[in-house]
Every structure is written in C-alpha cells, then in structure tokens.
Write a structure and sequence with these properties.
Elements lengths: L18 E5 L2 E4 L13 H28 L8 H24 L6 H10 L10 E10 L5 H8 L4 H14 L2 E4 L5 E2 H7 L7 H7 L2 E5 L3 E11 L7 H34 L7
Helix pairs in contact: 3-8, 4-5
Length: 272
C-alpha cells in the first residue's frame, strides 16, 4: 500500500509511528499521511491518493537534495530573506488595518467632477463612442415602417411606444440613449460595413441593413470620435478609484511621517 515499507533505522523518530518512505535520511511517517483521505472515499481511491502523496513527497525530497548539492552556502542562507518577508507582512497587515479603520471612503459627485475637469488631459478617448437605439427584426416583418418612424424620434412618448412595439415584434432591441457605448461593440451586433468610422458617424444618424434573415435598424442620437475626451460618465468609477487611492497614499505618508517625527522627539533614533 505504501510503495513498500522501509525498515526503521536508529535515526528515525519512532514516536511518529511507522516509517513509510525514506529519501537520503529524511523520513515520511505514517502520521504524516493521516487526514489525506476521508471516510467517504472508496478504498481504491484512498490507495491512489496515498500513493500519489508518497510519490510527490519522494520527488520533492530529491529536488531538495539536488538543490542543496548545487547551491552555495550563501544561496542557501535564507535568514535575511525570511526576516525581510516577515517585516513586509507586518507592515502590509498594519497598513491594511490602518486604511480599513481611518480611510474616508465617501467621495462626492462634485469632487469627481472637479477632478475630471482639472485632469481632462488624462482622459483621452481611444475609441469612437455612440449613443444609439437599435432593433433587429425578422426580414419579412410588417412593422418596419412603425419602427423607422418611432426610432428617429427621441420624444419620451415615442420611445415608450417603441419599447412596447419592440417587446412584441423585435428579435433584439436596445434603447438607452443616456449611455455611451463603443461603436466597435455595436458593430459586433449590427452588420454595418464602414471603412471610416468618423466619416460614417459624421454623416449618418439612421441606418437600416438587411441580411438573409434579419433587418437591422440603428438610430444614432450622439457620438464622440476618438480624438476627443472620454466623457465623465465613462470615467466616473475610474476617477473614484483614483481619488480613493490618492487618499490611501496620503494617509500612509502622513502616518509614516508622524511615526518618524515622534521618534525624533523621543530621541529613539540614533545614526552612527
């Protein structure tokens, strides 16, 4: 079951139970494999799990042995690395707790708007954006004229009528003229062929496209080309995260400086 039980030698710790494997003087004991399998696992699966554990342990010991043979004493001295790692964990956990307890996470809309206005140069638009309505209809639909008339009128009553019409006769429908979407994303839904997006958007407000099965209708209520500035509603959450991160950094800097100033006052710092 255990790939052959190896006889214990004087260097084995018999208090840990029976030895089930040995590699270059390192022992794997019966106690080490307790808990690997649960009572709900079949005998065959249990054997497979235990044997796999033993095999992995053996391979690991062989790698460790090879590493010890090939690394210098300096390379195997991990004392400083462990100390640095411990200190990093201490600082990280302390700062995380400090941020959790003291960081002001309430960011007003006016603060977000002010940041946007003062940093527009950082929000360069990289994609053409549109505000649009689109509907996908069966090619033989008898309601195309109704859709054409309603889609080109953004009056609230007309849009409500369009919603109702689309609910009954459209295969797919989108009506959110308050939100910007990437024109490239729209083109993944609507088979519009254009070789110059800016020229197309500058000259077209309504387009209708047919294929073998469907009719696609799109009304563009607004657009922004990729030479402009990304609108605030798109950058809103990004700006909120930026402000929050700035507050975090400010809190940490103030804390670090406060600790340093306190240590100077208490004269606990000595530089030789």
């Amino acid at each position: 079951m255990f790939l052959g039980v190896i006889s214990c030698t004087n260097s084995a710790d018999l208090s840990k139970g029976e030895v089930i494997a040995k590699v270059y003087g390192n022992y794997l004991y019966e106690a080490d494999i307790k808990g690997i399998v649960g009572p709900e696992i079949s005998k065959q699966d249990s054997l497979m799990l235990v044997n796999s554990f033993i095999d992995n342990w053996i391979r690991k010991q062989l790698l460790i042995r090879q590493a010890e043979k090939n690394l210098t004493a300096a390379q195997m001295n991990f004392k400083q690395n462990l100390e640095d790692y411990r200190n990093s964990l201490l600082i990280y956990n302390y700062e995380s707790q400090l941020i959790k307890e003291k960081l002001d996470t309430i960011i007003s809309e006016s603060e977000i708007a002010d940041y946007y206005e003062n940093n527009k140069q950082n929000f360069e638009l990289r994609h053409n954006l549109v505000k649009a309505i689109y509907a996908v209809l069966p090619l033989e639909s008898e309601h195309k004229d109704d859709f054409r008339a309603l889609m080109q009128n953004t009056d609230t009553l007309e849009l409500n009528a369009l919603d109702e019409l689309a609910g009954n006769y459209a295969i797919s429908y989108y009506n959110d003229t308050s939100s910007w979407i990437r024109f490239d994303d729209l083109l993944m839904q609507i088979p519009i062929e254009t070789y110059n997006q800016e020229l197309f958007l500058n000259n077209i407000t309504f387009v209708e496209v047919d294929n073998e099965r469907y009719t696609y209708m799109v009304y563009f209520s607004n657009f922004l080309n990729n030479e402009g500035v990304s609108p605030l509603e798109i950058e809103h959450d990004n700006i909120k995260n930026i402000i929050l991160n700035q507050r975090k950094q400010s809190l940490l800097r103030e804390t670090h400086q406060g600790l340093y100033d306190k240590a100077l006052r208490e004269k606990v710092i000595e530089i030789y």
